[in-house]
């Protein structure tokens, strides 16, 4: 065994001064992350109103946050322990790739959601149904997880390109700096999971903004043209937001659009989630590239906070999620319950009836 982990060294580890902060933070992230993201998954399972193409990716995103949250108690133990044992190496070699895979999959999932939102607005009737029907969603989500796991796990465990382990100085699970390929491995992971998804997301949301701006201009122009037609004879129907009008070039168009206020709000929410992810992970990403970073423990803690942000955003900003969350928390009937949820409720009622008869 090399000098880094030499058994001739003392097994005692100097207590970490930052342990108290990170232990408390990881404890909070664990409980809030499990409860919040578990509620997101339960909400989508329970209500058909939430069983949409975009929400399939949101469930996958919640799963990544649940997995990340499950690693927090282990990091707490690693942070608090004051002696070295080879088992710490084993623990870190198991936990670190799970956490890293989940984080990387989060970036890819947000990129997929951005593509989903852009396609929904750009081509809702042709391309969107073909790319994002139920079976295709399963394929995309599986592919995202496979890519994430492959890039994170295969290099260190199959090709000896990088290495995970326990850092005595850092008092945490790390990519072992003594390994010759560690820095290149960190650059590989960052290159695949940061700039590429980031570029995809930015391009998609810029495209969405341009189309929404053009849509609003057309809608305002059509409404102005319709008002001028009201002074002249002609038939038109203004029920709700759907009506046939005659444009300036003489062609009939249907003014109802697939771009609804709810869809716009959902798109805004996903963009906010993307911004939150960038804010949380950019400092830690920079530290990962530099390897030696004095504030690494704080950047890691900020990055870990991302796992509890998404459910809060859904709860405050997403009208349907907020409605279902409220019903689940207050133990009321959820709107448009799914078949699975109705079956669970029916089974529970039958069990209660049977117990009362006894």
TrEMBL record:
Localization, UniProt: Cell membrane
Origin: domain of life: Eukaryota
GO cellular component: plasma membrane
Pfam family, one: 7tm_1
Keywords: Cell membrane, G-protein coupled receptor, Membrane, Receptor, Transducer, Transmembrane, Transmembrane helix
Main location: membrane
Single Gene Ontology MF annotation: G protein-coupled receptor activity
Bilayer topology: Multi-pass membrane protein
PROSITE patterns documented for this protein: G_PROTEIN_RECEP_F1_1, G_PROTEIN_RECEP_F1_2
Segments traversing the membrane: 20-45, 57-78, 98-118, 138-159, 184-213, 271-291
Ranges where the G-protein coupled receptors family 1 profile domain occurs: 36-314
Family: Belongs to the G-protein coupled receptor 1 family.
Record-given protein name: Putative alpha-1A adrenergic receptor-like
């Amino acid at each position: 065994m090399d000098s880094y982990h030499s058994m001739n060294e003392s097994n005692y580890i100097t207590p970490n001064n930052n342990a108290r902060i990170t232990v408390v933070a990881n404890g909070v992230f664990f409980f809030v992350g499990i409860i919040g993201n578990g509620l997101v998954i339960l909400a989508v399972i329970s209500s058909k109103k939430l069983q949409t193409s975009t929400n399939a990716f949101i469930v996958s995103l919640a799963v990544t946050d649940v997995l990340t949250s499950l690693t927090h108690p282990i990091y707490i133990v690693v942070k608090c322990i004051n002696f070295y044992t080879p088992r710490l190496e084993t623990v870190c070699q198991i936990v670190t790739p799970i956490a890293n895979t989940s984080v990387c999959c989060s970036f890819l999932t947000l990129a997929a959601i951005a593509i989903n939102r852009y396609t929904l607005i750009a081509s809702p009737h042709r391309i969107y149904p073909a790319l994002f029907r139920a079976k295709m969603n399963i394929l995309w989500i599986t592919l995202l997880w496979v890519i994430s796991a492959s890039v994170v796990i295969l290099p260190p465990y199959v090709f000896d390109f990088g290495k995970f382990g326990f850092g005595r100085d850092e008092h945490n699970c790390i990519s072992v700096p003594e390994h010759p390929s560690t820095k290149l491995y960190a650059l590989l992971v960052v290159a695949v999971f940061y700039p590429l998804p980031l570029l995809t997301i930015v391009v998609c949301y810029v495209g969405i903004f341009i189309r929404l701006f053009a849509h609003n201009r057309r809608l305002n122009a059509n409404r102005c043209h319709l008002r001028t037609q009201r002074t002249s004879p002609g038939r038109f129907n203004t029920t709700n937001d759907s009506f046939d009008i005659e444009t300036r070039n003489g062609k009939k168009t249907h003014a109802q659009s697939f771009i609804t206020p709810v869809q716009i709000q959902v798109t805004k929410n996903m963009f906010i989630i993307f911004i939150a992810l960038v804010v949380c992970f950019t400092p830690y990403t920079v530290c990962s590239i530099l390897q030696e970073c004095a504030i690494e423990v704080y950047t890691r803690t900020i990055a870990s906070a991302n796992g509890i942000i998404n459910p809060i955003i859904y709860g405050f900003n997403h009208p349907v999620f907020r409605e279902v969350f409220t019903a689940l928390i207050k133990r009321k009937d959820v709107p448009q319950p799914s078949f699975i949820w109705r079956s669970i409720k029916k089974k529970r009622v039958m069990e209660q009836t049977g117990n009362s008869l006894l």
